[in-house]
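RECORD TYPE: inverse folding
INPUT: structure tokens
STRUCTURE:
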């Protein structure tokens, strides 16, 4: 699993923590802890940015398409928080290369990335469309860990749309997979989302 999916999961957890903090008006102590977590994560995420120049240099060279796809994914992982528009362009390049090379796994992953990026831009219809396509491909190639994450993203989209029954259905699908593959990180995020729902 690429670092991007880990970061997407962490960001979903942070988003829900922020919503819970704001909705429940927790004590100042909890807010201080929350701010500490944000500062820690910001510092952690900033350490990834040092690699961008070397990745761009590598991309300027003549490399095989499969290597180019991997380097572009790595570049997207480095830039998506600070430069989401650039990341969107990178993901569209990955999409074209993955189609050209018939790389189903990369195609599924980049569809998930595109869904996430459109979700962050508030383009919910596009986000849902890309995530549903990603889910379809991931189920065909049996990539259960990524499928659980995509179902979690789809649930988040339905949350934003206010469609509770579908939000809950996709949370349940994600939970079934997370428990089957014994992924504690995804399970924790799902429990957090359940808590937010109820």
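DESIGNED SEQUENCE:
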């Amino acid at each position: 699993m690429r670092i991007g999916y880990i970061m997407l999961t962490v960001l979903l957890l942070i988003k829900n923590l922020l919503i819970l903090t704001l909705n429940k008006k927790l004590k100042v102590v909890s807010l201080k802890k929350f701010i500490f977590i944000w500062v820690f994560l910001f510092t952690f995420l900033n350490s990834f940015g040092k690699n961008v120049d070397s990745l761009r240099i590598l991309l300027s060279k003549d490399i095989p398409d499969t290597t180019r796809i991997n380097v572009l994914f790595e570049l997207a992982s480095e830039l998506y928080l600070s430069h989401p528009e650039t990341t969107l362009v990178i993901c569209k390049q990955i999409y074209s290369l993955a189609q050209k090379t018939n790389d189903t796994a990369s195609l599924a992953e980049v569809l998930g990335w595109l869904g996430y990026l459109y979700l962050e831009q508030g383009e919910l219809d596009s986000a849902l469309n890309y995530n549903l396509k990603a889910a379809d491909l991931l189920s065909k190639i049996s990539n259960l860990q990524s499928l659980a994450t995509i179902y979690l993203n789809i649930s988040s989209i339905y949350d934003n749309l206010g469609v509770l029954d579908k939000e809950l259905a996709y949370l349940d699908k994600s939970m079934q997979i997370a428990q089957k593959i014994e992924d504690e990180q995804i399970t924790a995020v799902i429990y957090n989302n359940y808590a937010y729902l109820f």
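NOTES: DSSP finds ten helices and no strands in the chain.
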